[in-house]
Amino acid sequence: MTGIPALFTGLCDDAALFPPGNAALPDAVPAHARHRSSPYADLVGSFVFPASRVEELTPTELDVSLTLPGGLATLEPALTRIAAVEGVTPVALEIAIPAEQSADDFMAVLYALETLTAGLDVFVEIPRDERRSDFLAALAGTSVSAKFRTGGVVAEAYPDEGELAAAIHTVVATGVRFKATAGLHHAVRNTDSHNGFEQHGFLNLLLATRRALGGGTVTQLAATLAERDGALLAQELGDLSDDVVEAVRSSFRSFGTCSVLEPLEDLVGLALVPSSVLSTEQGTSA
């Protein structure tokens, strides 16, 4: 095995600017460039950037996934500013939903802005309230993808296995692509030793997606998300055929991580990625 396997290609979007990493922009951009020129470059997706900070952008070669915590009202001014910055290219949008907005109203506004979103991957952060099922239903049959929040800075930000399993089951059944954000600090389900939070593993999400594609029930997916045996997860994922890998990654697109090296080190530790991609020079400079 050499390089990054297809199962993990583009899996890790670089969210270095976000908690808990909170990297400074002058440090994060050069670090991203180093990631993209490293032996593990194929693991790295786009640079996640908040719309509220577009005024800080300076000319550089950078593909950004633009987060819009203020909703669609902030889209046009953010894209206008980015267009004026040489080398910075938006490739995706990650759009939050204002608390008062219904699924029907949101989708109507989104369609009205389709000239602005053309050519971009659009992810809608699915709310964790009574509107959840409406938004998931609204995305079915569209080219718009879902974004699931899988953690945060408080325990309540982490959905339990049942909630996340139901979400994955629904989007796979309806053909909606998805990404995840926050809380996926390690490959395998774990309890954080510092704060006691129960954290999902990104390998668990990959295998749950595979099982959903194979007709697994919500209960079976929840059990997969709860699995803490990294060797077992690694073996099952390592045995996937090329066509199954393609199907899994067509569904589960990526996740945002404030550290690209942490998931990479976990993958190397589980022998899913060769240790040769983690040279001393790349590990210390990133």
From TrEMBL:
- Which superkingdom is the protein from? Bacteria
**What is this protein's record name?**
Transaldolase
Q: Which organism is it from?
A: Rhodococcus tibetensis
